[in-house]
Amino acid sequence: MTYGRLAQLVRALGLHPRGHKFDPCTAHQDMKKWELLKSVPVFTSKWLKLSNNTYKLPDGSIREDYYHIERPNYVLIIARNSNKEVLVETQFRRGVNEILTELPAGWIEDGEEITASASRELLEETGYSGVPKLLGEVYPQPGFISMRAFIVQVDLDDTRVPSSPSIDEDIELEFLSEDTIVEKIRNNQIKDMGFLSAWAFYKTF
């Protein structure tokens, strides 16, 4: 991503006032990383690894019992039709016990190209296909999860085949105009962090 794109994204997210000079190349040059001293596995499955980490901080102090989660990287998909309407999904999410409006998304398989993953996930979940373009990446929960989300825009073609979602995916699909999405965000009707992050990225391009 170019400096101009990054600065534009920062403004879109409201992280600094317009006119303030933002230089991502020199910001926080004196800040030091923590040193990982020990990582003890606690739980491991196909989709999640939990570890108990011990770190040495820049001031020399030792901190224990920082639980760290590893999960696969995934794609967030902005799929739009010829009218620039965006495809959204509505489904139940057990983590918050609510029915949410989200973007098509899915895990990136080992060795899979990011745009290929987006095309595969979009086809499986919705039956739609098109031309993918990688916009960028975000860290969903950088405080305790080493996972990245890649935002991919897909300009849909005119074809659609039957979808094949997972057995636990009960999904309703609809196309929304950009104005409708903005209104839903303002009214707090779209609460999914992935959707909001991807939307901010999409609007800078």
Q: Your description of this structure?
A:
20% of the residues lie in helices and 39% in strands. The chain has 205 residues and is α+β, with helices and mostly antiparallel strands. The strands form three sheets. The protein has a four-stranded mixed beta sheet, with no helix packed on it. A four-stranded mixed beta sheet has the order 7-4-10-8, with helices on both faces.
Note the main attributes of this structure.
205 residues, alpha+beta, 4-stranded mixed beta sheet
Measured as a percent range, the helix fraction is 10-25%
Low-confidence stretches: none
Q: What order do the strands of the largest sheet run in, or round the barrel if closed?
A: 1-2-3-9
Shape: globular
Biggest β-sheet strands, sense, barrel: 4 strands, mixed
| Structural class determined from secondary elements | alpha+beta
* Overall number of strands: 11
> What integer value in Å does the Rg equal?
19 Å
- Regarding quaternary structure, what we see is single chain
| Tally of helical segments | 4
Mean pLDDT: 89
Summarize the helix and strand pattern as letters. Answer: HEEEEEEEHEEEEHH
Taken as a percent bin, the fraction of beta residues is 35-45%
- Determine the N-to-C terminus distance: 11 Å
